[in-house]
Each structure stands twice: as C-alpha cells, then as structure tokens.
C-alpha cells in the first residue's frame, strides 16, 4: 500500500491551492522537504465547478457596501498576487456599473467609495485601482449594449482568468516539477481511520481499486464530500450544508466591447456581463439545489427565470432560447435565501477533526491564500 504524508481529494481551485501551498513549503523548509503529497481528482483538474465560474478575480470592491474593510484588503492582496504570479493566464479587466439615481449605488456614495477603494488599493498593492465615477458617454470606448449613455457609472479595474482548464494544466506541470504526485480519473470511495493513519480507497477509470495510507487528508470536493464514505470517528457533526446551483449563460452574440458590465435587475439580482473568447457571458444565477449531483443542468424554468429577470434591465441585450450558445453550471454552499435569491458564504469554511480537513469555498480569487490557511493545520 502506498504511503503519503498528505492526500488532497479534489483537484478544483481549492485542492490546487492547497497543493501549491504544500509544494512551496517543501521547497522552503528542510523540515518538510521529504514530505510526500498526493492529489486525487475524480475527473480532470478544474473540470467541474471551477470551470463553470464567471472567471472574474475580483478585488473586493463589493465589500465596501458593508464596510468590510478586512475582506477588501484580503481580496486586493489575492488579486494582486495572482496578476503577478500568472500573467499569462490572468489579465486586467476594466469594469463598469451604471449607477442608480438614488441610494447607495448612486453617484455621490459611489464617488466616496471609489476614493476609499483607491486609497486601500494604494496601501495594499502600491498603486491606485483607478476607480472613478463618470458619465458613460465620456468613456473611451463605446459600449453599445448600454442604452442610456447619459447615465453616470462607476468604473474600476478587476482581473479575469482566461481559461480555467488551461490554467489547471499549467499548475499541474508546476506541481509535478515541485514533487507533488497527481492522479486524475481517480474516484475516491472512502476515507477511514486506522490507528493514527488514514486509508483512502479510490477507483480508477478502468475499475481498479487502490488504497493509499496517509497522515493527513484534505477534502476539497465541496458537495461531493457526502459521496465519500467516511468512518464514524472522522465524521464532523456539522456536515449538513445547504447548496445552490450556480450557472452562467454564454450567448451566441459577439462581444463588441472589452469591459465587464455589472447591472441589477428589478428584483435586485446582480448580473455581470463579461466578454469571453469573443462571445458574451452573463452570470451568475443562483437557485436552491437538493437534487442529484449527476444532473445539475438548469431546467427550462430556471433558465426562463434567469432570462425574465435579466431582460428587465435597460440594456440593448436580451436572453432568449435561440441565442444561448452554452450553459455553465456548478454547485456552491449556500448560506441562506434572501430577497434577491440564495446568498453564498463569503469566506471559506475549514473544519478539522483528527487531521481530517474539509474545505468549502465559493471563489477563485483567494484560492492561494486559502491553501496557505489549510497548510497551517498540517504539521
């Protein structure tokens, strides 16, 4: 039976973040230079929820509305780190949000928010974000899907992950070079504790069962964790989470603009319109989910609800069944249901029991920082 120090289950962004953190620890510390790390992924790296995100690496501007400065700082740090570390995969993204006439998302509150955001960005990254408020008609590019060019808008800069699958491939090569063992197409069936060690049993794509021993297990499989049989002594008491289906719609329409555009529907649902590979992606729509993980395709009713809400926005862009090119769907942990639909956990949830670590995550932005947090539990 193969023996490892750490086995990571799940090769999405969360699992890759932990693997990268552990690989860096091996490179830096003589105390762990011989540590053996194995990552097991049921299919291909980042092929599930991580490949179905809207791909925006955001800098935490949204958290200013609740004056959550710590999360703004965390997001700005994470975004800056990713832009510097992976410039071939992550690029700057200009963003624009048409403003309302009254309320927190109107002209003067947003001017104050942009000034504060620029100051925090300058302190954290050494440069201002460039956030500002101005009339849409004065923007350097014509954004033809916005009807009212006389509106004021908030302009700022975020970042975009170009292709999660290509990113995962490059991360795989990086990890292998640093000594991390990666096995794709390995369906983990069970995790059990024997004395002070874990036994992880997996099934390969050719139907061959394998067993691996290790000192630590990190489970990053998200909603699929419940599919893994766990021995009674490592089951957590608070393992019952609510889930939501998250999906984006990619339209057949060609993007004639390069900015991401944030808008709000009449029901206060937020939408982001993102140019991607020449086409237009719109997301993200959330609906409560308690069905089979083998079938997360949005229903016709769910797609229609998405389209109905989006089509009420004052834009020269509509969604109908004839202009849908592709649908991306994933499953995320849900905190509850508010007036604008499901609300997600903003921060990762990490639980630890007898060296068995479970990670639930909802965003790409902080996957490296999250991986470092998990590593602190591995001695």
Notable characteristics:
379 residues, alpha/beta, FAD/NAD(P)-binding domain, ten-stranded mixed β-sheet, nine-stranded mixed β-sheet, 36% strand, globular
At the fourth level of CATH, the homologous superfamily of the domain at 2-49 and 165-240 and 346-375 is FAD/NAD(P)-binding domain
Say how many strands there are: 19
The whole-angstrom Rg is 22 Å
Structural class given helices, strands, pairing?
A: alpha/beta
CATH topology of the domain at 2-49 and 165-240 and 346-375: FAD/NAD(P)-binding domain
CATH architecture of the domain at 2-49 and 165-240 and 346-375: 3-Layer(bba) Sandwich
Tell me the name of the CATH class of the domain at 2-49 and 165-240 and 346-375: Alpha Beta
The description of the largest β-sheet is: 10 strands, mixed
Average pLDDT reading: 92
**pLDDT under 50 segments (min length 5)?**
none
Folded structure, characterized:
The protein is of the alpha/beta class and 379 residues long. Among the domains are: 2-49 and 165-240 and 346-375, FAD/NAD(P)-binding domain (3-Layer(bba) Sandwich), CATH 3.50.50; 56-160, no CATH class. The chain is built from 6 helices and 19 strands. Strands 3, 4, 5, 6, 12, 13, 14, 15, 16 and 17 form a 10-stranded mixed β-sheet that branches. α1 packs across α6 and α2 (69-85) crosses α3 (107-125). It is globular and about 70 Å long. The model has no long low-confidence stretch (mean pLDDT 92).
């Amino acid at each position: 039976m193969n023996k490892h120090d750490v086995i990571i289950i799940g090769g999405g962004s969360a699992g890759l973040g932990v693997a990268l953190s552990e690989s860096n620890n091996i490179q830096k510390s003589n105390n762990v230079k011989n540590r053996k790390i194995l990552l097991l992924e049921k299919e291909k790296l980042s092929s599930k929820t991580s490949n179905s995100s809207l791909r925006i690496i955001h800098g935490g501007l949204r958290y200013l509305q609740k004056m959550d400065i710590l999360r703004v700082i965390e997001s700005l740090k994470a975004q800056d780190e990713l832009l510097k570390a992976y410039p071939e995969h992550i690029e700057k993204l200009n963003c624009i949000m048409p403003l309302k006439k009254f309320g927190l998302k109107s002209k003067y509150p947003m001017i104050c928010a942009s000034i504060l955001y620029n100051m925090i960005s300058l302190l954290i990254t050494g440069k201002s974000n460039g956030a500002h408020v101005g009339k849409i008609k004065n923007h350097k590019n014509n954004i033809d899907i916005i009807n009212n060019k006389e509106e004021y808008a908030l302009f700022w800069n975020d970042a975009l992950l170009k292709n999660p699958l290509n990113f995962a491939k490059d991360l795989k090569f990086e990890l292998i070079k640093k000594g991390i063992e990666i096995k794709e197409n390995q369906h983990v069936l069970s995790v059990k504790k024997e004395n002070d060690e874990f036994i992880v049993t997996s099934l390969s794509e050719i139907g061959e069962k394998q067993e691996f021993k290790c000192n630590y297990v990190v489970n990053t499989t998200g909603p699929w964790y419940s599919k893994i049989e766990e021995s009674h002594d490592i089951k957590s008491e608070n393992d019952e989470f609510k889930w939501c289906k998250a999906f984006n719609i990619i339209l057949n329409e060609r993007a004639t603009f390069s900015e991401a555009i944030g808008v709000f529907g009449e029901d206060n649902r937020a939408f982001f319109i993102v140019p991607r590979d020449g086409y237009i992606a719109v997301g993200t729509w959330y609906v409560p989910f308690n069905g089979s993980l083998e079938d997360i395709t949005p229903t016709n009713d769910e797609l229609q609800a998405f389209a109905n809400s989006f089509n009420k926005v004052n834009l020269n862009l509509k969604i109908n069944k004839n202009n849908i090119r592709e649908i991306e769907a994933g499953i995320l942990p849900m905190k509850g249901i508010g007036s604008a639909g499901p609300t997600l956990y903003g921060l990762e949830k990490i639980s630890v029991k007898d060296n068995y670590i479970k990670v639930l995550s909802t965003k790409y932005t902080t996957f490296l920082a999250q991986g470092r947090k998990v590593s602190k539990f591995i001695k």
